[in-house]
C-alpha cells in the first residue's frame, strides 16, 4: 500500500489535517510562552520553572490518560481535550487585555494545558489502530512522524515571524482558535473497529496494574521498553546539553547551532522516507536494534566533534535512527496490544520514555560541572552501543505470530 493511497482515505484526511494543525499550534505555544515569560520577568529561573510545570504532567498524567482511554469513548476524550486546551490557552491573552495577568497565572494555566495535552497525546496515539487498517500502520506512523518533524523545522520559524508581526498575545489567541477545527475533525472520524471500551468492575488502580502486568510480561514489548529506558539516558543527556556543548566546547555561533538543528531535521525526514518505503518488509526487531546501535555511534561521534560541520554529521547519525525506531516501535505496540488495554499500555510506555529524558538531562547538567561533557557523551554512548547486544535474542521472535487479531 502506497502512502498516497492511505492519504485518499477520509480518516487520513481528517486525522492528518487535525494532526498538522495541532503540531503547528504546539510550536506556536512552545515559542510564545517562554517569550512571554521573558518579557514579564527577564528571569531564567522563571523560564525553568515553566519548563517544569509543562514537563511533569506528561510524565504523571500519561498513565492516567491511558486508563481513561480504556474506560471512556476515545472520540469524546479527544474532542473535549482539544476544546479544553484551546479554552485554557485563550485565558492568557484575555487576562492580559484585562490587565490582570501575573506570572503565577501562566504557571497554573501552563500546568493545566500540559495535563490536558497529555490526555490528548495518549488518546490520539491510542486511537490510530481503530482508524486505519493494520497493513497501513507503518505508513500512517511515518506520516505522523513526518508532520511532527516538519513542524519543528517550520513551526518555530512561523512562530518567530508572527510574534514580531502581531505580538505574542495575538499568537496565543491564534493558537487557541486552532483547536476548534481540530475538535471538529475528530467528530467526523470513522472507527473501523469497536470504539466503546470493554466494561470493567475493577477500579482505576487495578486497571493500571493490568496494563503494567501486560507490558512487563510481554516477550517483546517488555524488553524493548526496558531497552528504551537505557538508551534514553544517553539521548536525554545529548538533547539537554547539546547547546551547552556547542557553546562551551566548540564555541559555535547561534547561526551555526541553527545549522546543526536544521541538518538533523533533514536527516530525520530522510529516515522517515526510508522507513515509509521499507513498509512491512524485513525483520522489524532486527531493524530497531540496528537503529539503536547506529544512534549510539552518533552519540560517541558527538564527543569527538570539533566544529559545526562534524557536530551536524554526528547529530544526524544520532537522531535519524531514533526517528525510524520511534515509527517502528509505535507500529509494533499498535499491532501487539489488544484495543481494550492499549490506552493503559501506551500511557505507561509514554510515561517511562518521557520520564527518562528530563531526569537524564538534569543529572547530566550536574555531572557536567565536575566531568568533561565529552567524557560523559562518550561513556553514555558506549553504554548505548552495548545495550542492544543484550537483546539480540528478540530477533528470533516472529512478531506476526504475536500480533493481535
Automatic annotation (TrEMBL):
GO terms for cellular component: plasma membrane. GO terms for molecular function: transmembrane transporter activity. The keyword Cell membrane applies. It comes from the Bacteria. Residues 11-396 form the Major facilitator superfamily (MFS) profile domain. The chain crosses the membrane at residues 12-37, 49-69, 76-96, 102-123, 143-163, 169-192, 224-245, 257-275, 287-306, 312-329, 341-367, 373-391. It is found in: Cell membrane. InterPro entries: MFS_dom, MFS_trans_sf, TM_effector. Its main location: membrane. The keyword Signal does not apply. Keywords: Cell membrane, Membrane, Transmembrane, Transmembrane helix, Transport. It is a multi-pass membrane protein. It holds the Pfam family MFS_3. This is MFS transporter.
Amino acid at each position: 500500500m502506497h502512502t498516497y493511497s492511505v492519504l485518499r482515505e477520509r480518516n487520513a484526511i481528517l486525522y492528518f489535517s487535525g494532526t498538522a494543525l495541532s503540531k503547528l499550534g504546539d510550536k506556536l505555544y512552545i515559542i510564545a510562552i517562554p517569550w512571554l515569560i521573558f518579557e514579564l520577568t527577564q528571569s531564567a529561573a522563571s523560564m525553568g520553572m515553566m519548563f517544569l510545570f509543562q514537563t511533569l504532567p506528561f510524565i504523571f498524567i500519561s498513565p492516567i490518560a491511558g486508563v481513561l482511554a480504556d474506560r471512556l469513548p476515545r472520540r469524546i476524550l479527544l474532542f473535549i481535550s482539544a476544546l479544553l486546551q484551546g479554552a485554557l490557552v485563550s485565558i492568557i491573552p484575555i487576562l492580559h487585555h484585562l490587565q490582570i495577568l501575573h506570572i503565577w497565572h501562566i504557571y497554573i494555566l501552563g500546568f493545566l494545558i500540559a495535563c490536558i495535552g497529555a490526555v490528548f497525546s495518549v488518546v490520539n496515539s491510542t486511537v490510530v489502530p481503530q482508524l486505519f487498517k493494520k497493513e497501513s500502520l507503518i505508513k500512517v506512523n511515518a506520516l505522523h512522524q513526518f508532520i511532527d518533524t516538519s513542524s519543528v523545522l517550520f513551526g518555530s520559524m512561523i512562530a518567530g515571524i508572527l510574534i514580531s508581526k502581531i505580538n505574542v498575545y495575538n499568537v496565543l489567541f491564534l493558537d487557541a482558535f486552532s483547536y476548534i477545527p481540530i475538535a471538529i475533525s475528530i467528530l467526523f472520524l470513522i472507527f473501523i473497529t469497536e470504539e466503546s471500551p470493554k466494561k470493567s468492575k475493577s477500579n482505576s488502580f487495578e486497571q493500571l496494574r493490568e496494563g503494567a502486568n501486560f507490558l512487563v510480561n510481554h516477550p517483546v514489548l517488555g524488553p524493548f521498553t526496558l531497552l528504551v529506558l537505557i538508551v534514553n539516558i544517553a539521548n536525554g543527556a545529548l538533547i539537554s546539553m547539546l547547546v551547552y556543548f556547542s557553546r562551551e566546547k566548540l564555541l559555535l555561533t547561534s547561526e551555526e547551532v541553527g545549522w546543526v538543528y536544521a541538518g538533523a531535521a533533514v536527516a530525520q525526514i530522510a529516515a522517515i522516507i526510508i522507513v515509509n518505503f521499507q513498509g512491512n518488509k524485513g525483520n522489524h526487531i532486527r531493524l530497531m536494534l540496528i537503529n539503536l546501535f547506529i544512534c549510539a555511534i552518533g552519540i560517541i561521534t558527538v564527543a569527538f566533534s570539533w566544529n559545526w560541520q562534524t557536530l551536524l554529521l554526528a547529530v544526524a547519525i544520532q537522531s535519524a535512527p531514533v526517528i525510524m525506531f520511534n515509527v517502528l516501535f509505535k507500529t509494533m505496540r499498535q499491532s501487539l496490544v489488544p484495543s481494550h488495554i492499549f490506552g493503559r499500555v501506551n500511557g505507561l510506555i509514554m510515561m517511562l520514555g518521557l520520564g527518562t529524558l528530563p531526569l537524564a538531562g538534569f543529572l547530566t547538567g550536574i555531572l557536567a560541572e565536575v566531568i568533561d561533557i565529552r567524557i560523559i557523551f562518550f561513556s553514555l554512548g558506549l553504554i548505548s552501543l552495548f545495550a542492544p547486544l543484550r537483546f539480540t535474542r528478540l530477533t528470533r521472535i516472529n512478531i506476526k505470530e504475536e500480533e493481535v487479531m
